[in-house]
Design brief:
two-stranded antiparallel sheet, 8 helices, 2 strands
């Protein structure tokens, strides 16, 4: 599918409500459970998404629009949420994420992204040359990937409890 900004924004705008419906008021064991050592809980996923809102998508889009390939992106700390979210209530994180996402989507709509600008290039510190369109498409896929991750982690909390039905539940594989 070809990237379309309007479609991307429609998906990105839904992530906060999706996570809110899934996590707000849920028992702590469902929010903080993970898949074992060095894996993320839904709480960690949410913290990671917040950090991305602060330091990744819009800041990198601005770098591409203002500097092109001349200025590389700052490396992204994929584990910053461990420090930044520590001790915060899930409801506070959900509210923070919703607020940041709303502001970022408003900013994105004001950046004047045209089909021509989607081809503008930037420099990723590990991947090399990337386009604005690729960055924005990745934002959408990243959201969906982490929503799926949160669902998978929550589902796996009942891996044993489902008994023989496990064979019908690919999410538990």
């Amino acid at each position: 599918m070809e990237f379309q900004l309007e479609h991307a924004m429609a998906i990105l705008s839904r992530t906060p409500a999706t996570l809110n419906a899934l996590l707000a008021g849920a028992p702590a064991v469902w929010v903080t459970g993970n898949e074992g050592p060095d894996t993320w809980s839904p709480y960690d996923v949410l913290g990671h998404l917040i950090h991305g809102e602060e330091t990744d998508w819009i800041p990198r889009a601005r770098i591409i629009l203002e500097h092109g390939e001349a200025k590389a992106f700052e490396p992204f700390d994929r584990f910053a949420q461990t420090r930044k979210s520590k001790g915060k209530a899930i409801e506070d994180l959900l509210e923070e994420f919703a607020t940041l996402r709303s502001k970022n989507l408003e900013t994105l709509s004001q950046l004047g992204v045209t089909p021509e600008k989607l081809a503008l290039r930037g420099t990723h510190p590990e991947l090399g040359t990337v386009t604005l369109g690729e960055l924005l498409a990745t934002w959408v896929a990243h959201d969906l990937s982490h929503v799926a991750q949160a669902l998978r982690v929550m589902s796996k909390q009942y891996t044993e409890a489902v008994g023989p039905w496990r064979q019908y539940l690919p999410i538990l594989a």
